[in-house]
Fold:
Amino acid sequence: MPQARGRLGGWRHRGPGNGLSKSYYAREAILERLEDLEDIYLAEQALEQVRRGEMTTHNLDEVERNLGLAD
Structure:
């Protein structure tokens, strides 16, 4: 893990001298990754619903027409 430690050490000096710790940046990176994983999971669930015919999709032209925004 020395490579990760080196990257975290460099992050400490970013920002306007806020003095945030490596732990803070590690925590933020972990939280961001968890959010990304949640987004992927939700997208995969939606895709499966579309494939099973439980959810439909609409292209931009359809949406604009339905909202009265078409030219």
Notes: Residues 2-66 form one domain.
